[in-house]
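In keeping with the milestone schedule agreed at the kick-off meeting, the structural modelling team has produced records for the first pair of proteins. Each record is given below as a sequence line and a structure-token line. The laboratory manager (R.T.) confirmed that both were archived under the project's standard naming scheme.
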Amino acid sequence: MSHAATIPVLLNQLRLSTMARLWETLLEDAEQDNWTPAQYLATLCEHEVNERYSRRIDRYTKESRLPVGKTLETFDFKMIPKLQPKKMEALAKNSDWVKRAENLLFFGPSGAGKTHLAAAIAHSLIEQSIRVRFYKGSALVQELQKARSELQLENHLAKLDKYSVIVIDDLGYVKKSEAETHVLFEFIAHRYETGSLIITSNQAFSEWDKIFADASMTVAAIDRVVHHSTIIEVEADSYRKRQAISNNCMGSE
């Protein structure tokens, strides 16, 4: 067997699928443009790295279950004058806070854009090859309760550890029952100083006794969430309300 014939076999054995697919085409370019062997090899490797990155980001995006189209570029910062775009960009582009297992908390009224901001930052983190998982607060609690009923809560919490960041959207809408309170607290305690949380809530900490039935548990949960965290107040009228008013005004013209 010639050396040329063994190249695709060896590349596939090494799981270098992109290089196996492109080596002949790029070899023709190299011969035509008089590339050095180093240039040819570097170009092959660059294609392999870029395609692996693209596949990884696609996979991370699908598994994250993040809302589609929520980016900082599509967020209307003019509607929230007190919100600093540069601060949001820094949280999105600099993932050091994730490496330190710190949390990001968004508080504000319903429809003000908390979910959009949380999802935008999460999308940016994925582009940095950070694994993220998005949950509605009620859905997370239901999933954890199911795991507990099957005596698999500890294993399920361990599986969630593969995500460096977990987004809990609308935490304030979690129902208040003893079972839900306990699994949510166990989750927060499990993530403490081991993985980052991005939480959105329309309820201030002073109202978290509506989420956790036990006062001591409420204090303990807040203490763990707030420690090593950045808190963002989103002070604005409901975006959905503003959009509806704008549409009505346009329709009346």
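The second protein of the pair:
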Amino acid sequence: MQRKNNINPEILDYEEFNLDEGIKFGILPGKVDDEEKLIINESKLIDALNYYNKLSKNLDIVITDKDSFERLLNKYLEVKSEEDFSNSSFEEDIEEDISLDEFLKDSVDILKTENSAPIIKFVNSMFFQAIKKRASDIHIETHEYSGVIRFRIDGVLYLQAKLDKNIIGLIINRIKVISNLDISEKRIPQDGRTQIKIAQKNIDIRVSVIPTYFGEKVVMRLLMESEDIPSLKELGFDATITKGFKNLLEHSYGMILVTGPTGSGKSTTLHSFLQTIATPEKNIITVEDPVEYKADNINQIQVNPKVGLTFASALRSILRQDPDIIMVGEIRDKDTAQISIQAALTGHLVLSTLHTNNAAATVTRLQDMGIEPFLIASSLIGVLSQRLVRILCECKKESKKDSEKFYELYGQNVKLYTANGCPKCNFTGYLQRRAVGELFIMNDEIKSAITEAQNEILLRSLMKKHGMKTLRENILELLISGETSLEEAIRVGLKD
């Protein structure tokens, strides 16, 4: 009989062992240092030893702490439930339409038992609901006396369930187990990944866990496959901008920047660009944080600052890999900006993103980073500033109040609509999103103005003079055509 704390045992195929009874009495077969053992939960030592004495075939005992035992227990429960989960039909779950709140009400007594299977079912149900409702992120938050689950749908967070605080800890532990994170570590942030299978389709999930004042908070990003990347036409931009994209992507070198706030669809647009120009003759390499779309026809690098793999260091290595096209997930600092511009000037097509509010601000932002104006003018070939606007569902209703407000703001009599809500749109009033943007393709006059370090206001007026349709004008068109609401138009930048 040994005692080992803080271990991570592997499951063991041990014939004639009753898993349900093992869970009940706190004893499970497992491998520790490649040796077959029976692992005992120290908090159930007496019950476990009594059950051990009844077994006909015995292994040596290892007594361990509760957290170590739970790691092994969760692995067994995961294997037990995996077949049901993998074979579950996404369509069947839609028909059942059981909310997470209802699930908890039905299962709250079971959660107090020794069997953790209801937690597994709840987490599985949560993933099903997230996919069904088109959520991009799942937030699990711990407050002082309770916790909540929220889904980000079309860029906005919606409350899905309120939880007892004792339950939320079990759910977070389950997520840690399937993401290969340490369930006993609650003091520092942890990042991991997991994968679920729904209707024969694998979905990668990026997991981030951070400690907050009252407990842990988990955010899970549902990552997409290459087949989910929309085409240029499907992005939703108007015909003029889409045509401009195609012209830009025909360049063999230079830099194309996509700008906008967090969550404005920049990464999706960049990957759409890459899929448009990807051919077997081209060597395409990306540096991302994280890799949000997995694609088979491009080489993707995920940054890892812990080992020194930053955007800048990865870019330096990429230039020795004979690339044709380079995609940098985000330009965050002067080093990354300088290397990207040098790559664009030495015969590579470079695509990247930047956090600015409009196309003209992109130039001044690069100058703020310390990039010389003449280098910006020489390397930059086009800038797209974009937003994602929620489109009203067919259940929309006319709003005279919004029409009156619009008249006060802009002096126009326009028939406006507002969100209503129905089962089709999950009672949000909106169904999917559409990208709007302002695209400027560089010309000699703008290059000259940049070289002379002209200010943002002058650059913007020059861009408009050369036919750039602004973000505000595009959002206004969606509003007047009845595709979105005044509230949504203001949220994404109508007044900017």
